[in-house]
Design a protein that fits this description.
alpha+beta; Alpha-Beta Plaits; 6 helices; 38% helix
């Protein structure tokens, strides 16, 4: 993670902070266009580490809204069941409608704009509501974070 943090500084982003071994990096940028930022980071990762990986960037202003919009959160829900799958773009309404027709039993999801809210009764690693599922069904790139990680990122964003 130290090398990743250094890479962010090298390509001109300010105040990079990494969070555990999750691949999450918080940084400041004067660039407003998220797609340009994603492209810069993706190219730098390929150049620095030799890996081609999808990169998703969220603005700090988006995170509070994402957390607050969780349709599954309540005081009675075990937050270990809650996850967020971030999409690199808003999927087509047709793709969303087709996915929403699928029944996953006790596992529930709700797609709002470019975020899939998940409530997984058992282990996330055993659900069929995986990144691969949403990538194939919605024709997007994804990354998933659990409730605790997403909330920790919000705390770090406010420092």
């Amino acid at each position: 993670m130290a090398e990743l943090k250094a890479m962010f500084s090298t390509i001109g982003f300010k105040n990079p902070i990494t969070y555990i071994q999750s691949g999450n990096v918080i940084f400041d940028s004067e660039i407003e266009d998220v797609e340009i930022i994603e492209s810069l980071i993706s190219k730098a990762i390929l150049h620095t580490f030799g890996h081609e990986v999808p990169v998703l960037v969220k603005k700090s202003s988006d995170f509070d809204s994402i957390i607050d919009s969780n349709p599954f959160y309540s005081d009675s829900v075990d937050t270990k069941q809650l996850h967020f799958t971030f999409l690199n773009r808003i999927p087509s309404s047709v793709d969303v409608e087709n996915v929403e027709l699928t029944d996953f039993g006790v596992d529930k999801f709700k797609i709002i704009r470019d975020t899939v809210y998940l409530c997984i009764e058992n282990s996330y690693h055993k659900t069929k509501l995986s990144n691969l599922f949403f990538e194939k069904q919605l024709n997007v790139s994804t990354t998933t974070r659990n409730w605790n990680t997403a909330n920790k990122l919000v705390v770090l964003l406010k420092k």
